[in-house]
Amino acid sequence: MTKNWVFLSLIFLLMNCSSKEEDLYAPVAYNLEIPSLFSQKLIAPIIPANNPLTQEGVALGKKLFFEKLLSKDNTQSCATCHNPQNAFSDSQQFSVGIDGKKGFRNAMPLFNLAWNFDELFNWDGSEFSLENQAFEPVRNPIEMHETWKNVTQKLQNHPEYPTLFKKAFGIATIDSVLITKAIAQFERTLISGNSKFDRFLRGETTLTPEEENGFNVFMDEAKGDCFHCHGSNNNPLWTDNLFHNNGLDKTFSDLGLGAKTGDPKDNGKFKSPSIRNLAFTAPYMHDGRFTTLEEVINHYSEGLQFSSTIDPLMKKVSQGGVQLSAKDKADLKAFLLSLSDVEFINNPSFKNP
Questions:
Q1: What's the chain's Rg over C-alpha atoms?
Q2: Strand partners, 127
Q3: Residues whose CB falls within 8 Å of the CB of residue 114, separated by 6 or more in sequence, listed in order
Q4: pTM for this structure?
Q5: In angstroms, what CA-CA distances link 249 with 68, 129, 191, 305, 306?
Q6: What is the spatial distance between Cα 301 and Cα 127, in angstroms, rounded to a whole number?
Q7: Phi, psi at 262, each rounded to 5°
Q8: Angle at 223 between CA 218 and CA 227, to 5 degrees
């Protein structure tokens, strides 16, 4: 009788210790690997105080990013339209949702999002913060077409997720806010900063004469004049993350920023995408109208269309564009491709677990 009492007491003690250990579990801070050029030329990335990066949160966010339970018929995940091999964009002009319906804008690539200092996301800036942006695709009827109530229920009944949320956020009860927080944590780790041009700036390699001339064309206000919107050797994001009308159309079937602000002066304006990783992110522009870089360069060289909101930076719209020579066009393309980061698209930390 005495032995049994001692045994039961030990079991109770061990169970109590195990419970306290679980209650005291604290996630481990995740340290972003920030490229040296970013540290030198940019201010610190934006990490919300109410959603700090943790190893457990990032791992959970990665699992959720590739989780098809987020869609109504369990066939699509975030990665369906944001494929790592395409620098987290879609090679199709318009992504196709679970019901076979197409959107009307090209899926934007995802990288270096923690340095989007205004925190306005999507082509039209319609979402503020990565956390808020992650709400939309799940409930969008032409994308995942699911309800957040169903998603949380599916994850709550999953054999792994309650424990993973407990480790990441200290609570096993799953809700949509925690799901989007985890996805945003993972997205902030998607950093691209090791292209050939980055290595050139770090003094680790040299450019070809064509790439070097292409960079000069890019920076020359009398030639390409691209740097105002798309960064420079002093802006490793290669975007200003602002909204411009770059002369695609005389009239607008898609108002872009104007539909969000209600200000006619914003009609036809869309976010400048980064020109990193163009080798992987075709087709181009907000509506994916251009399938090749040659078409993009030709647009700025000879194809500009005037409209009332065209950006003042499109200085030569009256001439149709900047009128580049065939050699300057070819060299500009060579420079643009030097911003391709093969290491980024093949990084196992960013692939389906």
A1: 24
A2: 121
A3: 32, 45, 46, 47, 188, 191
A4: 0.92
A5: 37, 29, 33, 5, 7
A6: 32
A7: 80, 5
A8: 35
| Local structure of residue 353 (DSSP, 8 states) | -
> 285-303: per-residue pLDDT in tens?
999 999 999 999 999 999 9
Q: Write the CA distances from 43 to 34, 37, 116, 189, 240, integer angstroms.
A: 11, 11, 11, 16, 14
Which backbone phi and psi does 269 adopt, to 5 degrees? -100, 135
Rounded (to 5) percent helix, strand, coil in the chain: 45, 5, 50
Task: Work out the widest C-alpha separation in the chain, in whole angstroms.
Answer: 100
Of 301, 305, 286, which is closest to residue 218 (Cα–Cα)?
301
Residues contacting 122, CB < 8 A, separation 6+ = 108, 133, 271
Amino acid identity of 71? S
Pick from 218, 220, 269: which is nearest to 246 by CA? 269
Distant-in-sequence, close-in-space partners of 308: CB < 8 Å, separation ≥ 6: 267
First-to-last C-alpha distance (Å) of the chain: 51
User: For residue range 67-124, what is the model confidence (pLDDT) as tens digits?
Assistant: 999 999 999 999 999 999 999 999 999 999 999 999 999 999 999 999 999 999 999 9
- In eight-state DSSP terms, residue 309 is T
Q: Which residue has the tokens 């070097």?
A: 212
d(CA 118, CA 125): 9
CA–CA dist 251, 239 (Å, integer): 25
Backbone angles phi, psi at 125, to 5 degrees: 65, 25
Q: Report pLDDT for 24.
A: 63
- For residues 223-245, b (16+ Cβ closer than 10 Å) or e, as one string? bbbbbbbbbebebbbbbbbebbb
Supply the DSSP string of 70-98, one letter for each residue. GSTTS---HHHHSBGGGTTB-SSSS-B-T
Query: CA-CA distance, 49 to 193, in Å (whole number)?
Result: 25
Q: Look-up: residue for tokens 């808020």?
A: 132
State which H helix or E strand residue 127 sits in: strand 127-128
